């Protein structure tokens, strides 16, 4: 199974559902539709209406983050995995570099993953090195720490997906070389196998994916799909990625 996950970030109002309608229509007619899953993570404000609308359709809705506590608490503006699940979301991103840079620590991330799984959300756990770490050849080291400090062998690996997103690639148009990305993906899967003592969960790539560079990514069979930022906010760009992936 391949995944095409769109991260809308701070984008979208109720009528932006038209974008999802077009993607859903494409999916319903696509001869390859059994081979992949489409997930969109709109902002919190839209999760309930979108999840209701797409309840019996093939697009799943997720959140972009969640708070590190269960149920209810007295933390202003916090939204727990329990609350996210209760409005129909099936997935949540956790550990996006935007949130890490705003203060998410490994301890917080571990609690987020724990409570998200407890509430039956599928977790898309994001990892990635920054430009300096890459330059200093610390990529593998950084990724390993991000994985082993958060993911626990007791977690249900069937509900975990890992998204490798090099920070220097997010929103920049810069992408890793094919060899680099293949090696890194294999490395991530090896670390995950060691953590879970079984086969690795799916590993996605994210960072400036679009309809033209997806042709290169599809040659790396270790990559199980994509986390797509900018290109997920337009139905045509998102659909082009799927079309060109299966061409
Ligand atoms: C992201 O922010 O998760 C992302 C991958 O963004 P973009 O596709 O715009 O690089």
List the defining traits of the structure above.
8-stranded parallel barrel; 17% strand; 10 helices; 39% helix; binds phosphoenolpyruvate; 247 residues; TIM Barrel; 8 strands
CATH A-level architecture: Alpha-Beta Barrel
Poorly predicted runs are none
Note the run of SSEs as H and E.
EHEHEHEHHEHHEHEHEH
Ligand roster = phosphoenolpyruvate
Share of residues in strands: 15-25%
Total discrete domains = 1
CATH class type: Alpha Beta
Which whole number gives the mean pLDDT?
Answer: 97
Report on this structure:
By secondary structure, the chain is α/β, with parallel strands linked by helices. The protein has a single domain, classed as Alpha-Beta Barrel (TIM Barrel). It is 39% helix and 17% strand. The chain contains ten helices and eight strands. It has helices spanning 17-29, 44-53, 81-86, 97-101, 106-118, 131-135, 139-148, 178-196, 214-217, 235-246; strands at residues 2-7, 36-41, 59-63, 91-94, 122-127, 160-164, 202-206, 225-228. It has an eight-stranded parallel β-barrel with strand order 1-2-3-4-5-6-7-8, surrounded by five helices. The radius of gyration is 17 Å and the shape is globular. The two termini are 17 Å apart. 40% of the residues are buried. Bound molecules: phosphoenolpyruvate. The site of phosphoenolpyruvate has 13 residues, from β8.
